[in-house]
Amino acid sequence: MPEPRLAESAARPSPRPLRHVTTWFDHHLYSFVASLGRVARKPWSTILTVGVMAVALALPLGLWLVLANVARFSGDVEQSRQISVFLKPQIDVAAAQALAGTLRARSDIGQVQLRTPEQGLAELRAGGLGDAISAVGPNPLPSLLIVTPKGDESLLAASLQRLPQADLVQHDAQWRDRLDGWLRFGTRVALVLGTLLGLGALLVVGNTVRLDIQSRREEIGVLQHLGATDGFIRRPFLYLGAWYGLAAGAFAIGLLTLAAIALRQPLADLAARYGSQFWLDGFDPLTAAAVVLGTTVLGWLGAGLVAGHYLRQTRPTES
Amino acid sequence: MSSMLRFDNVSKQYRGGHVALADVSFEVQRGEMLFVTGHSGAGKSTLLKLIHLGERPSRGAVLFGERNLLKVRGRRVPLHRRDVGVVFQDHRLLADRTVFENVALPLILRGMRRGEIAKRVRSVLDRLGLGARERALPTQLSAGEQQRVGIARALVGEPQLLVADEPTGNLDPALSAEIMTLFAALPERGTSVLIASHDLGLVRRLKKRVLVLDQGRLADDISPEDLADA
Q1: Residue B204: helix, strand or coil by DSSP?
Q2: Which residues of A touch B (CB under 8 A)?
Q3: pLDDT score at A110
Q4: B73 in contact with chain A, both atoms CB, cutoff 8 A
Q5: Below-50 pLDDT ranges, chain A
Q6: CATH number of residue B123's parent domain
Q7: According to the model, what pLDDT value does residue B229 have?
Q8: What CA–CA distance (Å, rounded) separates B27 from B8?
């Protein structure tokens, strides 16, 4: 038997492509307004939902922020991994400059900075030790080469120690290695927790939308009887999930920005006591926008998964 | 007259094993009004569900015009449902939407233009005596008015077939008669009407064809003439 076109007169009111576009736009507008109405009709419920989601999102985002700052700090440590090479007292400035030039040509060395005995003496005098130094007679300080490694600093330090001009090589490899280890571990912990809490946030959105779907089962049933497509029924929930995600993302960014402002000065003061200029960075506008976009997509996805699951359950039974 | 709906040896067995319909065959002509009656659990609701694809038959075929409903799947199910107006015993109006918005829903689903929606909704509301109530919420209406809104919503899309499941179940006799009068006028406009009801008194008064279901089987198919003689 030939299959007639369904709802010939009404379901396809006009074959014009423009008509389909306006229908699509009208349906999206309907869903957009309907979802906003749902949010506005239950302000306290919305605030609580967004609050729970924001806290759930703030935890991984906070970890991410800490991670970004730790990575920056780790970068600073990397840059400060300099090796101090104290030359023998008999090496004069000219020979020291020649040696510095030779070292700069090496592929495992990034930078070489020469500090002459005079410069060292001036630094000590500036630090208030001028009289003590004068008491020991002529300038006793050797020339110093500050070497920034490019590759494995331990190998380089050993190599520098073998230079005939070198008297003493200072290289704090052990504590730097330990710090590196802790940083790598911290990064991995933050990523794992971030993934778990991000999944938690997705579940929070899904569960919130599930509760909303449960409270609207009758309405959904009526719409299905009237001939609503799955897309038409799903769309307001997708918008709702997106609203929740957007609001929760913005709220979480706000919370973390406030936390960063509160912690920034005490942390800077603490860092200054260790001679560091470490400064806690918050979210830059581009990152904040990306986060809000991400949480909006997260909300949309969570709502889509739950709504899709519900709609699959309401298909006509085949038995 | 041509066939609007045909059940050919239709059976429905649910997953738990309960047989709701067994080997049921009948035909409804375009513009015909008939009742389906029977005790609770006789299979009336299942029969209506098979028509608007709330369920699918376990055996047999349901033909809607020339459309074999067994072949209607996926995205085509909602399109089929737009050809069937459904009226519920409990009205099932959306409580947070006005009368106008409730009645407009089927037309919104079809992507109709807003001007055309307003024209058709007002026309059907006027026809059912609800013109002055279009801005009211369902909770502000009497039971009879709510049922009329439900009927308006079912009719506004000009369905080929209207099915009603115990549409007067919650109404007093006077309101029931009023609602039935509305249904009785629909065949004149070419709409077929199938009403499930266990109110035998009401069924007898309207003198329409009656299908009697008993434990899922079609026990009797009584013509209006036979009903008048009964």
Answers
A1: helix
A2: 1-4, 6-7, 9-11, 13, 19-20, 22-23, 26-27, 30, 37, 41, 218-219, 221-230, 232, 316-319
A3: 87
A4: no
A5: 1-15, 319
A6: 3.40.50.300
A7: 62
A8: 9
